[in-house]
Amino acid sequence: MRVVSLLFLSMAISFSSCKLDVLDTVPRDRFSEDAIWDDPALIETFISSTYRSLPAGFRYSLYNLSVMSDELNARNNSWLYAYWQGNLTADNLGIANSWSGVYAAPNTNQNYWTTINRVNIFFQNIDRERSKPLDEEVKKRMEGENKVIRAKCYFELISQYGGVPIVSKPFNLKDDFKMKRNTYDEVMTFVLKDIDEAIALLPSSYDAANMGRITKDAAMALKSRVLLYRASPLNNTTNDRTKWEAAAKAAKDVIDLGKYALFSDYRTLFLEENRYNSEIIWQRPYNQLVSPEAVYVELSSYPNGYNGFAQIHPLQNLVDDYETIRGVLPENDPLYNDQDPYKDRDPRFYASILHDGMLWKGREVETFLPGGKDSNEGSISPWNASETGYYSRKFVNERINKPSSTNMSQTPWTFFRYAEILLNYAEANYFLGNEALAREYVNLVRNRPSVKMPPIPATVTGPALFDRIVNERRVELVFELHRWYDIRRWKIAPQVMNGDILRMDIRKNTTTGVKQYKKMVWKKAVFTDKDYLLPIPQDEMDKNELFVQNPGYH
Questions:
Q1: Which residues sit opposite 108 in a β-bridge?
Q2: How many beta carbons lie within 10 A of that of residue 290, not counting itself?
Q3: Facing residues of 519 across strands?
Q4: What is the DSSP string of 72-99?
Q5: How do residues 361-396 score in pLDDT, each as one tens digit?
Q6: Residue 281 is inside which H or E element, if any?
């Protein structure tokens, strides 16, 4: 099975492949495995490489889960269109294959099993006797970091595939590679044990030289997300109230730390100049000058008329879910004009999405036809134009001009931030029947200084309040690797992903200059029960007769 083939490239070949990752600036034959585990500095290097192996957002989210939901389109992607139509198979997972590997940088694959293996190698070796002593507090911190990394990997796997094998030690070539899948609940128990042990081991903060490391707070934030997912309808079929209580408590524990606050400017909170701001709980930094990782945020997102490849494009379905500044959806706002569709919208819309007519980097974005500079009739690489009429703005650093593989920002990837915790707490309280508390915490997010959306009134209750919570997560956490999971765990995917995938068509009268806006069907989407989980890759199934495939993929 691929658990074997992935785990074993670095496990079974006697550590040499791990050495290649960790000591990538040093000849591979300079240090033996014993030397690495004898030297605290080399152990730190190994752990740093484990951090780097963990699948993060860019490349991973923007070409994976975000385009597999109702957030983004990926240009000319026949695999994606087949996925939307319910035709995903175990033989052809395409970019959905986080089991075997997700493209992350030139000539590398990131996958959760490789990272899990690195953690298991760490735990196999950390208690060795060594000539250079390892400070006990440092050892505790290292153990806590690795437990959180492993817990996150397993959590992502069970959220995408259901139960997976629990592998807690490295394999070697003499081991029996055949094993059954553990259940979702068994893996969840394992995940929560790792998290709770990590919370007891980790410090709450680091000095400036160690920013980006996992803290106790990050472990607590992970616990909040894990318990929320466990309590959700997909995984909590009996609506066990105690699971919602645990989810609420985990979120409140983070809130009660009193350390975090919503950053004032939603637009710039994700950018490198504001890394580690008041809202950030755990962030993955990049340094492209030292270690290029193909994190082409600007090149992948910029419109073609601004020298970008524009490989991802927000969907009209997403645009329609941004409220007007009057606090209602456009369809419910009598002042909304469908021929002036971008007027008076939630400020988070302008912070996240580039639209036709928006003043950006010295000129208006032009996705109209005929002749729009950022359309497929533009003079600069028209083949790179958006297919939906929109471009992604959220993570891009607009100081970058003419982006390229060598001219890019150092935008970090945010794993956890405070706004999510507030929304986790709101959701858990909704399901506990504490609607006033749920509204209060959603309204805190809506009241960010740069957003200032009207509060959800007390008259919004019951299913209508749940719809507002759903929509708040949709716009606040857009493109941050939440939506694909959310619509499944709430079991609303059959409504969300069955029907029309929309784009915007804009025609400009060349005589009068007047534009006409029309929503158009871009693709059709189909969702069936099998689509709640991804299929395990067929080559894994072929290698292990003990594996049982997920329902609907036989």
A1: 105
A2: 7
A3: 504
A4: EEETT-HHHHHHHTT--BTTB-GGG-TT
A5: 999 999 999 999 999 999 999 999 999 999 999 999
A6: strand 280-284
